[in-house]
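Quick one:
INPUT:
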């Protein structure tokens, strides 16, 4: 039997925030951190769940992916403009409004393993970066339009046999 690959992605944030990881706490109440208003998207093999905190209660609701979805696994998650973005095994980025998938954006020829939302808009004008098994990094606008793509295979030495992008981080200082 082959090795099993982890297929669980998390992203959390407050409504209206962007980022691969939002604030650790929600609103301040009586001098203590609370999770009020925090929403976490959890995705993995054949599931998308949205967890929301209201007071001391957590409600969990299934993400509505749609019957025509070809994705069977989700490897990366981030928040952009208050919407959950999930990287799929098919190379698409799924954009959720609330808990419903509204758009599928094709960008990679293999699984999307990494998503990064810079804290400030990049010098390239990108609001989101994605990276995948195809060795590409793609920059996306806030409206989820592709701005540019770079291939590690084109810029790497011949030592790199199967370039994959597993993680992304942006240096805002250039």
């Amino acid at each position: 039997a082959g090795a099993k690959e982890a297929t669980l992605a998390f992203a959390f944030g407050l409504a209206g925030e962007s980022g691969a990881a939002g604030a650790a706490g929600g609103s301040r109440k009586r001098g203590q951190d609370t999770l009020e208003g925090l929403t976490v998207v959890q995705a993995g093999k054949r599931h998308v769940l949205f967890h929301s905190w209201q007071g001391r209660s957590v409600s969990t609701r299934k993400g509505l992916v749609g019957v025509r979805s070809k994705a069977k696994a989700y490897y990366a998650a981030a928040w952009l403009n208050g919407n959950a973005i999930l990287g799929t095994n098919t190379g698409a980025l799924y954009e959720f409004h609330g808990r419903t998938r509204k758009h599928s954006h094709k960008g990679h020829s293999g699984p999307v393993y990494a998503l990064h939302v810079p804290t400030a808009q990049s010098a390239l004008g990108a609001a989101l970066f994605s990276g995948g098994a195809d060795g590409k990094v793609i920059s996306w606008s806030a409206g989820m339009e592709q701005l540019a793509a770079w291939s590690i295979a084109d810029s790497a030495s011949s030592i790199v046999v199967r370039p994959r992008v597993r993680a992304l981080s942006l240096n805002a200082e250039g």
